[in-house]
Amino acid sequence: MNKRVLLVPATVIVAGVAVLASVNVFLGRWASQPLPLASDTVFIVPAGATLGTVADSLGVSGVVDPTWFSLRARHRNLASSLRRGEYAVGPGETADELLDRLVSGDVVQHRFRITEGTTAAEAIAALAADERVDFDLGGATTTDLMTRLGLEGNAEGAFFPDTYLFERDDTASELLRRAHLRMQQILTAAWAQRDPRVAYEDQRQALILASIIEKETGLDADRPRIASVFLNRLSSNMRLQSDPTVIYGLGSAFDGDLKRVHLATDHPYNTYRHRGLPPTPISLPGRASIEAALHPSGDDDLYFVARGDGSSEFSADLEQHNAAVRRYQLRQTL
After folding, report:
1. Residues 151-205: tens digit of each pLDDT
2. Residue 75 contacts residue 27 (beta carbons within 8 Å)
3. How many Cα atoms within 13 Å fall on the side-chain side of residue 179?
4. Which residues, listed in sequence order, are joined to residue 304 by a DSSP beta bridge?
5. Using CA atoms, how far apart are residues 82 and 80, in angstroms rounded to an integer?
6. Among 184, 142, 149, 178, which residue's Cα sits nearest to residue 163?
């Protein structure tokens, strides 16, 4: 049986190689040119998305030519290396630079802020309202939050106020675990450097007082002196008489106007009725309040009253305090 061998002319092979080389040169030039964008464009690569899906999506958005983009990705052997996430591409960026970021996972970093003095419940609500976050804590309360996070202790005071970077669809649980770890690190480091004169039984007590200081003033210069007032009261077996603790204990029953009846209402956080520290922190304190609680000024003050400008007037005895109340608070009500 005769066998016939099909011979491809050399000229055809050379032509094919030339065409392929020309395409590669074109792709390289195309991929090194700035993309036709007038402003930043944000797009999402879903989990499991194929190169074709990504290229088509970028094409619809006017970012790239999907055919050339797919060819360039295959030419660079990156077709199966694109990573999920949210990306931003802007004017001046090239297709190759975009491909490099899609492969490295250089995704958009969002910011979530936990503000000093907010409560754990407010932090949960803020996460629930943030559409960039995968809120996996539906129905969580401060009572069961730590259990759901796989953590120990009380939720109030457990999360450090700071700005946290995250990627779209990161979970609320992960953000809070990071904030909890940050609080542990900050508190432990501050505790190791505490003033030896402070007489807390443990870090928890220092955190409780720091949370009260956080709610009593926003002025950094006054924080160490306010810490001294409360520590002096504790050592003298006086009641703390802190309005923010009363307000915290009232919860949703507080309408923004603290009245005498509230000061007389009996609950564990009413420091007008109960001596000592409240049972838990009343807010999420920042670094300045933690440092103040562990490094009080050492003054002999037992009282302070708001001056109305954000600062406080301090007094060592009741007579001076009553005079300060008449000077600042009563004047404000006239």
Report:
1. 999 999 999 999 999 999 999 999 999 999 999 999 999 999 999 989 899 999 9
2. yes
3. 33
4. 314
5. 6
6. 178
